[in-house]
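User: I'm curious whether this sequence folds into something compact or stays loose and floppy. Could you predict its structure so I can see for myself?
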Amino acid sequence: MVLTVTLNPLLERRVHKRKQKSEKVNPAETLFAGGKGINVSRQLNHLGIKNHALTFMGGKNGKLLRKTLADENIEFSFISTQSDTRAADILIDENRLEYKTEFEPNPIITKSEAEQFLGKFEKMVRNSSIVVFSGSSPSQEADMIFSAGIEIANELDKICVLDTYGSHLENAISKGPLVLHNNKDEIESSLGIRLNDENDYLNLLIYLNKNNIKLAFVTDGSNNFYASKFGFNYRVSPPKVDAINSTGSGDAFTAGIIYGLEKSMIFDDFIKTAAALGSANAERWDACNLKKEDFEKYIEKVKIEAIGKKVKLIDDSPNY
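Assistant: Here's the prediction. I'll summarize afterward.
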């Protein structure tokens, strides 16, 4: 089972203006469950991967979020918080191809709540094959959950996937999760570096490998991205799509990585699956709601090229 960890979930209040002749129709507000790890859980459900979401919830928004998760058949557990779960007002206008989001402030997590969360995590991760830490930290007291959680997962010999950003990222990297996925902007803002050319990406991948991160993926929207596997580096060209909204594409990509690991796919195959999922997600207004027929057509359009050091091939054919 996969355990997804979302420290900063989101209650989305969506107003979706669909393409229509009349401008007089006022669309109703609809509630959706958001947050990066929850998005990953949703996509894993579509891929047939058993998973469980662990998160914080509090207040009226938390109560509404619990209902939306139950309605989506996303299995979850949570630690209650004194602060209300954050929410966002989202306006989707298909006529203007606009996706606008206004976020409420993050909740404040107390030290006691963070410790309770970590205790629950330690119990749940024992029954998991993979754990993924996704999304931002809501407040300073929650920052330590990333690094402490990675240490616990490593001690229990669990596959740990890290997809977070913020001031806590560098410390989390130092704990050596097996897998890391970030986009270019997250890396630059969190680590205070610039990724201007291929050499910058290679230096980053070397740094990550030195921190015992064996699989690393640094994406950049529809542009080429870079990946490493046990110190060998790759340039990847994602498929071209008619993108309308990138929200959740990184989470769909992360779900693809997890799918590949759970299915013991070879590296080339699961990176193609991840890239196809991320690209196909950008064609939609909703996040991580892809069925196989939505993305499989893009898998073979992903191009992978080895760069940097090469694998030394050994001729092991018999010479008798």
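Summary: Residues 39 and 288 are 6 Å apart (CA to CA). The domain at 2-8+36-85+107-307 is CATH 3.40.1190.20 (UDP-N-acetylmuramoyl-L-alanine:D-glutamate ligase).
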